[in-house]
From TrEMBL:
SUPFAM superfamilies: ClpP/crotonase (SSF52096). This is Enoyl-CoA hydratase. Gene3D superfamilies: 2-enoyl-CoA Hydratase, Chain A, domain 1. InterPro entries: ClpP/crotonase-like_dom_sf (IPR029045), Enoyl-CoA_hydra/iso (IPR001753).
Amino acid sequence: MTTMPYKHVIYRQSNGIGRLTLNRAERHNALVPELLEDLSRALEQCRQESPSVLVIDAAGKSFSTGGDVAGFYDTPRADRHSYARTVVGTLNTVIGQLLTLPVPTVTAVQGMVTGGSIGLVLASDIVVAGPKASFAPWYTVVGYSPDGGWTALLPERIGRARALDVQLTNRTISRDEAVAWGLVQYSSAAGAELSKALAIATTLARHKAGSMARTLRLNRPDPERAAAALERELEQFLEQIITDEADQGMAEFLGRNA
């Protein structure tokens, strides 16, 4: 078994199965630059080591609550554009790495997925979700513009009208809805998300590597189109994050005075 040291993620490989764990549980695995950079480095390690399959999971009660609102709000507006470019730009890089990884990814979701962290789900090939899994945007409440594939990847999964409704109304997608809509492929009992994902990964690891790689290339979203759509999300996010509206929305969300 190989294990590499990272600060905010854990990556290891055993018996041909790679496992990548988000490991910032005390902050609900919020997507700060350091975690995203660790993710990108771990995915590059996975590409180089080439296990038969990659399993993604997260420590704690939440899978990930997306971008750290406090991190954005506490960054002076003069520096926020650069900070946002780092966060959303690195997230887009991670999504691109997942969409072009030559092995299948199986992701286990045990709790909340909010904001841009949905990109890790949308870029996965198979998703297992427990009963407490949920998916929510929060953009129109906090005052952000969608990122993480909410416009670039989600409409292809659940339909454009449904994706737009969820984003505008900020409604939460439950686990059962996510399964019915095709966002999630498998449900599990509470606490069994990872074991089910590993069982699926074990099955995949026995299949023919070349056949799976070609199947992935033919079925995944086109990487070039996805990259262009994610770049449009980044451009809109950068424009919105430095507005008075974003300042007010973040202050209200964090319970601070604007």
